[in-house]
Design a protein that fits this description.
By secondary structure, the chain is α/β, with parallel strands linked by helices. It folds into three domains: 2-87 and 179-192, D-Maltodextrin-Binding Protein, domain 2 (3-Layer(aba) Sandwich), CATH 3.40.190.10; 90-176, D-Maltodextrin-Binding Protein, domain 2 (3-Layer(aba) Sandwich), CATH 3.40.190; 217-283, Alpha-Beta Plaits, CATH 3.30.70.120. The chain contains nine helices and 15 strands. The strands form three sheets. A six-stranded mixed beta sheet has the order 2-3-1-4-11-5, sandwiched between helices. Helix 3 packs across helix 4. It starts with a strand and ends in a 6-residue tail after the last strand. The protein binds adenosine-5'-triphosphate (ATP), 1-O-pyrophosphono-5-O-phosphono-alpha-D-ribofuranose and magnesium ion. This is ATP phosphoribosyltransferase.
Length: 289
């Protein structure tokens, strides 16, 4: 049975459970449940603090986990990134009061408050900057106002928290984060499972990839005159190749192709201008490509 770590609370918890549900897995119904067995799929889910998930997966005590890239780097865990799950996007950045520090060079010799000391120390070491890292649990933006630090390093999503604290970002992002599926690469991990576990992991990855594709793409269907088919299918090449079926109406064909959800309105306008009609968009619930 595969054992998988899922965030129990915070930003990652509900989108992670939602994605697993969409991939066909059973999830807990009570917020306080710590374990959920999915007998049908032969998987057991453990609900853990997202910060601890890289540790459990890195040690091999759990097979897979969902956590943020910043949390994975912070833990210094040997777990590998298996799949970017496309949610909980954020960057991890330095910030300070703009009247004090505005460039990364000026961080040397200063006090940096963060709840991600692993990420910050790695960055400082790689860039040859000597600074004093102060570990705090959260609300680090307050550390400057309270005189505990000169610089903060924290997760920035909208930037609203920094603005409210009167702080401005310094330099480029230290890293760009999003939710990941993490695990031990079966090619390099001799300790658990063997072929059966590797194929179970591959199946779970395929299911999650199916959800990602279903979220990004829609199915577009339309009718077009056969002599315009080449031009129309240039607009809708599909992923492999569009499906073209005969229509009862002489000289016309029906076309079906997957298109990016973000492009669908532009493509529909272009197809209409070309002469296509009965242009229909439908959602994809799931897929295996
Ligand atoms: N606006 C955000 N605030 C915090 N974390 C975010 C945000 N957007 C994305 N994330 C990502 O979510 C993960 C942090 O989740 P975590 O549950 O540890 O913190 P949280 O959501 O701030 O919860 P809490 O601080 O209440 O424990 C990180 O990978 C982070 O990059
Ligand atoms: O750029 P924004 O959209 O404002 O989001 C980023 C902020 O949200 C998080 O704080 P959270 O509310 O989780 O509090 P915490 O610092 O106590 O974890 C994070 O630590 C930043 O402070
Ligand atoms: Mg937080």
């Amino acid at each position: 049975m595969l054992r998988i770590a899922v965030p129990n609370k915070g930003t990652l918890a509900s989108p992670a459970a939602e994605m697993l549900r969409e991939a066909g897995y059973r999830q807990r119904t009570e917020q306080r449940d710590l374990v959920c067995r999915d007998e049908v799929n032969d998987v057991e889910f453990f609900y853990l603090r997202p910060r601890d998930i890289a540790t459990y997966v890195g040690s091999g005590d759990l097979d897979l986990g969902i956590t943020g890239r910043d949390l994975l780097v912070d833990a210094g865990s040997p777990a590998d990134e298996l799949l970017d799950l496309g949610f909980a996007g954020a960057s991890f950045r330095f910030a300070a009061h703009p009247s004090t520090i505005t460039t990364v060079d000026q961080i040397g010799g200063r006090r940096v408050a963060t709840s991600f000391p692993g990420v910050v120390n790695r960055y400082l070491a790689e860039n040859g900057i000597a600074a004093d890292v102060i570990r705090l649990d959260g609300a680090v933006e307050n550390a400057i106002r309270l005189g505990v630090a000169d610089v903060v390093a924290d997760v920035v999503e909208t930037g609203a928290t920094l603005r409210q604290a009167g702080l401005a970002v310094i330099g480029d992002p230290i890293l760009t984060s999003s939710a990941l599926l993490i695990g031990r690469d079966p090619a390099t991990d001799g300790r658990r499972g063997g072929a059966v576990a590797a194929s179970a992991v591959a199946q779970l990855v395929r299911r999650l990839q199916g959800v990602l594709v279903a979220r990004r793409y829609v199915m577009l269907a339309y009718d077009v005159r056969a002599d315009l088919l080449e031009q129309a299918t240039m607009l809708t090449p599909g992923i492999e190749s569009p499906t073209v079926s005969p229509l009862h109406r002489e000289g016309w064909v029906a076309v079906q192709a997957m298109v990016l959800r973000s492009d669908v309105h532009k493509i529909m306008d272009e197809l209409y201008d070309l002469g296509a009609r009965a242009i229909l968009v439908t959602g994809i619930h799931n897929c295996r490509l």
